[in-house]
Each structure stands twice: as structure tokens, then as C-alpha cells.
């Protein structure tokens, strides 16, 4: 039986989850179950699969979620965005998820398509994530719903307090837990915990972790998602740029220190942006005090 993440969170003090994206190549697609199987061996509480901005990778998300759930009997969270969908389409896709017994969703607004500067909702679509949560709730309690959180504040939001108010609306609408944007300064996460608690948000806030394995990829990734790269990170990784082995080693060491400090400070587990690779995350997991 596939469990709801909300039920797992009631039972476990700490959870470990791993996020994948739908691979673009057949080779990558064929390898993903092997990667997921290795994470199951390492004690994965659930997997998550991202939802693309458009095109065929979107259907691939549901196919992969369905396949991994059936193969491993582990909950797999389907990321789901409002981008490019009318409300009717959103409902239709939710119906398909229900048919496939996909019970766990990360509800998201999504970003403006590449090349467009500002986010605008689709025709007959939804403007904000909390509206998607309300739509999901029209299916009763079938789905367990997670939401995105931004320790540094969301890029389009004027300040952190407003961002926290918006998070509260998502939780009040039915969001049951939060997974954060990646960050490299744990102070941002701990301050976020305080700020959200003060605002009356009492759900689990799981830190999203990425292991740095390539400096240029890091710059691109953070440029897209708006996460700040602190100077200390530039100082470590810029001089290693081009040296794969040294970057890998430093990336694992940085992530191990970051994860240990988070867990010591009370983080209720870790959510890894595993990027379809087993090695760096496996090494980090083997070195942290879980
Ligand atoms: P919202 O919560 O709707 O917020 C969007 C903006 O609107 C924010 O600035 C917010 O402050 C503001 N806002 C929110 N509510 C209100 C309100 N009531 N009134 C006024 N303003 C409001 N993207 C993908 O395309 N696919 C993925 O699979 C994916 N996975 C992700 C996983 C995680 C863990 C995270 C952190 C992000 C992910 N994203 C993904 C990116 C995400 O879609 C973008 O960051 C998006 O810009 C914000 O989504 P949201 O659900 O937080 O939006």
C-alpha cells in the first residue's frame, strides 16, 4: 500500500527524501529505477519527481511516478504546477493521478516560460499555488499536499515577511509540509523556521539540499532559481573550477557539514536534490549523523 507523506511525517522524527527529474534520454530513463533502488536501500522515505515547464516531459513525470511506486512500494511525490494548464486540465490530470493511486503531490505555481520575463496565468488557469491546493482539495483528502518554501524569500516577493504570509495562506489552504528551495547558508533556514513559527505555521519544513559537483552548473542553477551563492561558497569552488575530482570532494565535504549542522539544529530530516545521480548523495548520507 502506498502511504501518504503526511502519515509518514506523523510517525517519524526525521525523514530522508530524494528528488529526480524526468530524464531527457532513453539511457537516463532506463537508469533511473536503478538509481531509485539504490536510494531505497539507503532508507528513502519517499521520492519526488519534478514537473517540466511544458511538452512531453510532463507526461513522463506521471509515468515515472507510477513506475517507481509500483516497483519499490515507496511513496513518490508528483510535482505539479499551474503553468500552461486551464483549471479543467488541472482537474483532469488530478483525476488521472487518483486513478493511478498517486497520493502525494508537491503543489506549485511554476515559473514563467523561458524567454518570458513575468509570470502570467494561463487562460482559465490559476494565478497562485494556494489556488491549486484548493483545487486539489476538491478531491477531498485523497491527496497529501506539500508546498515549496523559500528561506531567502521568493524572488518575486518584496520581502520575507510578505513571503511568510503567503506561505501561511498555502498551509491554511491545505498544504501539509514544506520543502525548501536549496540554500547554502544554514542561518537562512534557521531564521525561516523562526519566522514561520511566529506566523503560526506549524508544519514540517524540510531543508532542500544540493551537493555541489560543478561550479559552472551551480552558477547556472542558482541564477535560474534565485538562490544566493554566499561568498564562502565562491571561495571554495571557484578555484577548483574544471577539476572534477577536487570539486566533488569539496562538494561532499560542504554538504556533509551543512547537513550535520542542520540536523543538530533541529531540521526534521533532509530532502536531497539528487539530480538522478546516486554517488554524491550516497557519500553525503554515509558521512552524516542521521
Ligand atoms: P506561489 O506560492 O504561488 O508564489 C509565487 C509568488 O506569488 C511568490 O512571489 C509569492 O510570494 C506570491 N504569492 C503567493 N501567494 C500569494 C497571494 N495569496 N497573494 C499575492 N501574492 C502571492 N517548478 C517547476 O516548474 N517544476 C517543479 O517540479 C518544481 N519543483 C520545485 C520544488 C521545490 C522544492 C521548490 C522550492 C521549487 C520548485 N519549483 C518547480 C519552482 C517553483 O515553481 C517556483 O519557485 C515558482 O516561482 C514559485 O512556486 P510556488 O508554488 O512557491 O508559488
Would you give an account of this structure?
An 8-stranded parallel β-barrel has the order 1-2-3-4-5-6-7-8, surrounded by 6 helices. It is globular, with a radius of gyration of 18 Å. It has 11 helices and 8 strands. The protein has 290 residues and is α/β, with parallel strands linked by helices. The mean pLDDT is 97. Flavin-adenine dinucleotide binds at residues 50-51, 53, 79, 81, 106, 108-111, 128-130, 148, 154, 156-157, 163, 166, 169-170, 179, 181, 208.
Number of strands: 8
Strand order of the largest sheet: 1-2-3-4-5-6-7-8
User: Helical element count?
Assistant: 11
Order of helices and strands: HEHEHEHEHEHEHEHHHEH
> Residue ranges: pLDDT <50 for 5 or more in a row?
none
Rg, rounded, reads: 18 Å
Keywords:
single chain; 290 residues; alpha/beta; 8-stranded parallel β-barrel; 11 helices; globular; binds flavin-adenine dinucleotide
Could you provide a short overview of the structure?
By secondary structure, this protein is α/β, with parallel strands linked by helices. The protein is built from eleven helices and eight strands.
Topology at a glance:
Layout: H1 5-11, E1 15-20, H2 26-41, E2 46-49, H3 57-72, E3 76-81, H4 87-99, E4 104-108, H5 129-137, E5 144-149, H6 160-173, E6 177-182, H7 186-198, E7 204-209, H8 215-225, H9 231-237, H10 244-264, E8 269-273, H11 279-287
Parallel strand pairs: 1-2, 1-8, 2-3, 3-4, 4-5, 5-6, 6-7, 7-8
Helix pairs in contact: 2-3, 5-6, 10-11
Residues 50-51, 53, 79, 81, 106, 108-111, 128-130, 148, 154, 156-157, 163, 166, 169-170, 179, 181, 208 line the site of flavin-adenine dinucleotide.
Amino acid at each position: 500500500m502506498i502511504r501518504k507523506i503526511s502519515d509518514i511525517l506523523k510517525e517519524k522524527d526525521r525523514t530522508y527524501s530524494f528528488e529526480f527529474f524526468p530524464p531527457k534520454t532513453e539511457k537516463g530513463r532506463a537508469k533511473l529505477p536503478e538509481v531509485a533502488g539504490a536510494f531505497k536501500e539507503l532508507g528513502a522515505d519517499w521520492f519526488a519527481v519534478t514537473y517540466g515547464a511544458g511538452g512531453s516531459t510532463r507526461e513522463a513525470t506521471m509515468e515515472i511516478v507510477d513506475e517507481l511506486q509500483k516497483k519499490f512500494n515507496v511513496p513518490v511525490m508528483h510535482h505539479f504546477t499551474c503553468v500552461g494548464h486551464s483549471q479543467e486540465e488541472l482537474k483532469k490530470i488530478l483525476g488521472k493521478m487518483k486513478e493511478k493511486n498517486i497520493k502525494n503531490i508537491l503543489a506549485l505555481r511554476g515559473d514563467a516560460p523561458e524567454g518570458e520575463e513575468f509570470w502570467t496565468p494561463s487562460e482559465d488557469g490559476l494565478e497562485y499555488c494556494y489556488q491549486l491546493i484548493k483545487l486539489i482539495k476538491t478531491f477531498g483528502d485523497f491527496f497529501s499536499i506539500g508546498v515549496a518554501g523559500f528561506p531567502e524569500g521568493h524572488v518575486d516577493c518584496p520581502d520575507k515577511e510578505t513571503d511568510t504570509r503567503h506561505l501561511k495562506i498555502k498551509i491554511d489552504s491545505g498544504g501539509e509540509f514544506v520543502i525548501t528551495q536549496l540554500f547554502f547558508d544554514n542561518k537562512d533556514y534557521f531564521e525561516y523556521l523562526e519566522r514561520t513559527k511566529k506566523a503560526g505555521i506549524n508544519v514540517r519544513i524540510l531543508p532542500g539540499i544540493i551537493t555541489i559537483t560543478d561550479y559552472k552548473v551551480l552558477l547556472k542553477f542558482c541564477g535560474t532559481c534565485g538562490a544566493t551563492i554566499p561568498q564562502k561558497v565562491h571561495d571554495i569552488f571557484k578555484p577548483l573550477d574544471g577539476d572534477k575530482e577536487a570539486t566533488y570532494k569539496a562538494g561532499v565535504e560542504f554538504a556533509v557539514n551543512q547537513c550535520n549542522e542542520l540536523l543538530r539544529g533541529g531540521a526534521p530530516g533532509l530532502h536531497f536534490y539528487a539530480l538522478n545521480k546516486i554517488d554524491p548523495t550516497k557519500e553525503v548520507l554515509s558521512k552524516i549523523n542521521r
